[in-house]
Records
---
Amino acid sequence: MFVPKKSDKEVISIRIPSDMLKMIDDAAIKYDLSRNELINQCIAFALENLKKENEPDDQ
């Protein structure tokens, strides 16, 4: 059964260099994703793999 509900996402605006946008758009096409889907996945990956200050490198 379909139950309409609001998404927990928010609309934001960011400024990025034109060459980076071209790379994002090319990758989105390559992986058959929307620009939004790719950017969200990239941000999630970066946040999950962000090294905390004073944290030793994994070796």
---
Amino acid sequence: MCQIFAGQDPDNYSYVSRSIRLDGQVTSIRLEGLYWSILDEVAESQGFTTPGFISKLHREVMELQGAPQNFTSLLRSACLIYMDNRLATRMEDLRQRQAS
């Protein structure tokens, strides 16, 4: 089982930095490549570019909770929530097909 994790592509966990404009300020966000892939997918599913999605998310967090203490951790958590919801949707679709 560890081979699944230990043998993964190093690009999954190599850091990638991207410059993003948040509230008019250019900032650099550094995340593992796999998280960027998920964020790209989330953004596309919502009809945004990745920078546009991240900016919108940042604005919404600021409105709801004020400045996040660790925005990159929030992004990682958002990716996990997205993947968890995607898996739950797939499981529900499978159950419905099996019941038919």
---
Amino acid sequence: MEALYRDQILDHYRHPRNYGPVDDLPVTAEADNPLCGDRIRMGLRLVAGRIVEVRFHGRGCAVCMAAASLLTEHLRGLDADTVTALEQAARDALVADAGTPLPSPLEGLSALRDHPARHRCLLLPLQALLAALPE
């Protein structure tokens, strides 16, 4: 199972989904981790408070880029409250017992729970996303 997760991370790192310029989208925000150099910029188009288009751009480790790619595949149709709940569920799962998976779409990264130094890498795309969404 761990090899499957590793393969998923590498696939999304090497072939990120929804990766590209974001400046043409009306809502953008950036989050970075100066300790490791990860920097992710999320771009969104919202209609009636729901995400209808999302892309990301930036650079980061395999975990950060895979998390951003996985997230963007599942964000369409979500509103700010749902994304906020997703971010909180991810934070909670990272400190929960080993039987608690990360929420979909990040469940494939659940093995990272045992690597606290990588938690920030996994959460960084969510932080950029939350910064882009209206409160």
---
Amino acid sequence: MNDAREPLGAHARLAWLDVLRALALLGIFLVNLDWFNRPWQAFGWGMRPGLAGADAMVAWGVQVLVAGKAWVLFALLFGIGFALVQARRGVDEAGFAAWWKRRMVVLLAIGLAHGALLWPGDILRTYALAGLLLLAGRHLAPGGQRTLGLLAYGGVMGLSIVLALAMMGRGAGLVAPIDAAASATAAQIYAGGEFGAVTLQRLRDLSGLILADIGTVPMAFGVFLLGSWLYRSGRLHDVDRHRGWHRAMVVVALPAGLLASVTIASVLGLNAIQAGGAGQWWLASGLLQLAALPVALGVLSLFALHGQGAGGRLRVWMAAGGRMALSLYLLQSLIASWVFYGYGLGMWDEWGPAVLLAFGVTVFAAQIAFARWWLARFAFGPVEWLWRWASYRRRPPFLRSGPSA
């Protein structure tokens, strides 16, 4: 009987999930690149104002089609991974819980280090905290996980929408609550500061962003539960039995979510200026995030139906990126912080969204090639290997013992 705490081998993986994880990582990177070039005091206030031409088109596309949706898709995959490990034979309940807690604590430490040393917009700490909460919901029946997941995700967004309507009722004006002086100072430091000054600014920004976890952790917890429900309900490893459900997600949920996103952006706008006030933008932001869930579910179902046979060689290459997503995520921040911050090339705010899109796709393509090369020689990505070592409390193999998957 296998030890449930052992890493999953290639035979236990659903390969198309790795492809989807890589694509979600690309979406996250494209969204993050904008915030490697903007002060965090403006975070949450949507698309940067004053864009025109190709920059306006690209920024609109990223904000409407990718922002909010990529991280929800990645969170669904995180919850699926949790359920997949939990479902393995020979699981020792107490041992599994202790192992998962260690795994999340290590992920939290990685996230905090990432936020302090590379980029304060880190999502790993949110995943780690929500992952700890996930243990409390692991004994729920699949239907219970689905219900609680929808309540957690929808409840946070519903509260946000109610607050937005209250702001609108009080006549909230065009002025967004952004500290202009702090924003200008942060931009100056990121653009031209040495590593020490930039790190201090990152720590200041990180301390403020951690407050946002009050909302993002319950949301991530809800999506994790939905991912766990998807796996435990059989919808992923018995696709034929649930083909009708997956088709409904593809032909109904996915188009509805995209149509809602486009409509919200067109009617309400994508920042406080376009929306006509801070309250209106909060409303648009909350509605856009609600629309992200059906889009993510639809994309996942599309891959469930067609992911195994589609893409050929490209699918194999993309899967390598998904298998070492943590290493690539951190590498993205290392590259971007060096390119844009003052202690590196100092390209802060020099490129518009169109150039950032080209840069992001180019970096990601190189990462996929690197991941393929790496996994042909080594058993895990470098950070994944260290994460496993800390989680299992024994060193996993580093070199590959067989042909690449």
